[in-house]
Design brief:
- The chain is mainly alpha-helical.
- It has 2 domains: 19-82, no CATH class; 85-129, no CATH class.
- It contains 5 helices and no strands.
């Protein structure tokens, strides 16, 4: 392995502001994903050293993922993906359908997400984005 150049060292230890809304959204998505994973781990694992280490490693994942975004060239960070609130809602709806066998709470067949109408889709958006970044 070759030693780091002065430019490499400067890049690693410099502040990299998110200069575009797109870049900020990518960082928000990384933080949101890591937070949701941490919540899932904390609600499914017993408290203790192992959980604490898992959360610490997840923080490292967040730091390195955001460093990858921050240090990348170009304002849009390459091929990062933005998941919209509507996409999150549809994924949540489809996950619900998968768990319930495509049935509503009262046993009826669930319609396709596209057929729900604006009000019910808005409710799924609200549910899917509650407590996290959109």
């Amino acid at each position: 392995m070759q030693p780091l150049s002065p430019d490499d060292i400067h890049n690693r230890f410099s502040f990299h502001a998110a200069l575009t809304d797109t870049r900020r959204k990518y960082h928000e998505n990384v933080r949101d994903l890591c937070e949701r994973t941490a919540r899932t781990l904390c609600s499914n694992l017993p408290a203790g050293r192992e959980l604490s280490l898992a959360i610490t490693k997840l923080e490292e994942v967040m730091f390195w993922a955001n460093a990858a975004l921050a240090r990348s060239e170009g304002p849009d960070a390459g091929n990062a993906v933005i998941v919209t609130a509507q996409q999150k809602a549809q994924r949540a709806y489809e996950a619900y359908a998968q768990v319930t066998g495509g049935k509503t709470f009262d046993g009826r067949d669930m319609p396709q997400y596209a057929d729900l109408g604006d009000t019910i889709q808005a409710a799924w958006v609200a549910a899917a984005t509650a407590g996290g970044s959109q």
